[in-house]
Amino acid sequence: MPVALITGGSAGLGLALATALAERDWDLIIDARGGAELQAAAAALGPRTVALTGDVADPAHRRELADTATGFGSLDLLVNNASALGPSPLPALAGYPLADLEIVHRVNVLAPLGMIQLTLPLVVAAHGTIVNLSSDAAVEPYPGWGGYGSTKAALDQLTAVLAAELGPVHPDLRVYAFDPGDLRTAMHQRAFPGEDISDRPEPSTVVPALLRLIDDRPPNGRYRGADLLLGLLGSGPTT
What we know:
This protein has one domain: NAD(P)-binding Rossmann-like Domain (Rossmann fold, 3-Layer(aba) Sandwich). The protein has eight helices and seven strands. The protein has 239 residues and is of the alpha/beta class. Strands 3-2-1-4-5-6-7 form a seven-stranded parallel beta sheet, with helices on both faces. It is globular, with a radius of gyration of 17 Å. The longest helix has 28 residues, at 98-125.
């Protein structure tokens, strides 16, 4: 059976994707910082789910995740979904605490690259897929979103360069940045404290777009969930 490792898999889009893959009989490895929430998610996903509590910014935890994937013998899908928002309310860049920004970059940029470095032999052996979760804040200059957006812009570039480096050597490997659009998640609510975000769609609504990316395996690149849902896969990746 195929194996997926999804970071930040206890809630939001990570859990929604894990649920869809569990329904397809995938073996799953998920993680999150909150142990109780993670164990509840794992119980709901079923006995073929391994749940590891920890922070992806911790190299020892990343090694634990990679070692668990090694135990399965292959890794068909790595989804770097775990993300840090930063301070809430969102600070303007001119006054952004640099220590906090460093943490956001550690979680959103360095941790995904660390996971890719550790698991790449497994993904290559499986002719698998790497998906890095991006954001429209990576390409749009939204006030207040400079810290988070800068990390996702860096992740987009990291994804593009990895694809350029690995694609010629491993043509069956797929490396994607995926922009799901605004979703009704706990992290998005933190970005808008005290505001009603019920107009944002649930994470499950974008899962069909992710599944299409995984199933159809278009050329490496950056893809938006809205485009995939509209059937625009044939138009190629976005910039």
